[in-house]
Amino acid sequence: MSSTAKAFGAKASDADLELMQIERRAVTEKDVQIDILYCGVCHSDIHTVRNDWGGSQYPVIPGHEIIGKVTDVGSGVSKFKVGDLVGVGCLVDSCQTCSSCKDDLEQFCENGATFTYNSPNKYFEGLQTYGGYSTGIVVDESFVLKVPDTIDPKGAAPLLCAGITTWSPLRHWNVKKGDKVGIVGLGGLGHMGVKFANALGAHVVMITTSPSKAADAKDLGAHEVLISKDPEQMQQHMGSFDFILNTIPVGHEMDPYIALLKRDATMVLVGAVEPLKPFHGGGLIMGRKRIAGSLIGGLKETQEMLDFCGEHNIVSDIEVINMQDINKAYERVISADVKYRFVIDMASLK
């Protein structure tokens, strides 16, 4: 039998989020039922609620940074037991048979990954998946993650999106001890990039337009701060970076950042899911430089990140809110008035 859960969602692109009752599927053989304790607030939640990217199906129940306790498991579940602290990120299903899935890159499933919200729901015909702004969720065990009990579960919530989004490119491009790594933009993604690059032993440079962010960047683990609006500072760092992680969430000028790369070095985009301003091909050609992109991470890599966070005591810097304050929180996210991620305490919904 399916069950009902309290949730917060939006009924239209111009509507506030409000209290709703939603249906969750019955626990099947390979399912894990989770009582949600905390859920992070991602900018993608806002984009989907407001249909900024098109394709939103209403009601939208956002939330893909989920931390909770296991309350039930199916008869075939081997990885989890009742009482375990677990996480669910941006994915809740994939085909498991394509080359991407077999390579533990479920986010690139060639038959279409099922995202935690606003994806077709194969269990309820004609409905879409509902996310973590809810009291509970049922997820296939293959898409559930073990959360180390050594880290704060509230601060762990944003690791399921902001964390893996920055961890994955740092690992894929083999950032290592002694590398000079630039992190562009100090927000929900950027602050995690600084923490991870520092823990990996890199020399971390926070690249920002805002001198006011310098002290915070250094507190988070940056060794230097480069003000990108200062031509003299940019000139001093030209051609010196082994790797740049670009977290700017909107279209922007690329040429100044390309100029910072060493020969054969890479800048990876994780923020701007939209058209970029034209850039000069010569900046890439004269130095065999690369611009690449990266999307979250697969389940195996996400578990590796969580385990790394457990070993190094890394969590996100957060502000905890009640579910009832979500509409105000959205406005604050849009005006960059949060350090650096909101997390909803689901006790406020129960």
How would you characterize this protein structure?
The chain is an alpha/beta fold. The chain folds into two domains: 3-161 and 316-348, Quinone Oxidoreductase, Chain A, domain 1, CATH 3.90.180.10; 163-293, NAD(P)-binding Rossmann-like Domain (Rossmann fold). Helix content is 24%, strand content 27%. The protein contains eleven helices and 17 strands. Strands 3, 4, 5, 8, 9, 16 and 17 form a seven-stranded mixed sheet that branches. A six-stranded parallel sheet has the order 12-11-10-13-14-15, sandwiched between helices. α4 (162-172) packs across α5 (188-199). The model has no long low-confidence stretch (mean pLDDT 97).
**What would you call the shape?**
globular
Fill in the CATH topology of the largest domain: Quinone Oxidoreductase, Chain A, domain 1
SSE pattern:
EEEHEEEHEEEHHEHEHEHEHEHEHEHE
**Uncertain ranges:** none
User: What is the CATH class name of the largest domain?
Assistant: Alpha Beta
Q: Indicate the CATH architecture of the largest domain.
A: Alpha-Beta Complex
Quick one: biggest sheet? 7 strands, mixed
List keywords for this structure.
2 domains, Quinone Oxidoreductase, Chain A, domain 1, alpha/beta, Rossmann fold, 17 strands, seven-stranded mixed sheet, six-stranded parallel sheet, 350 residues
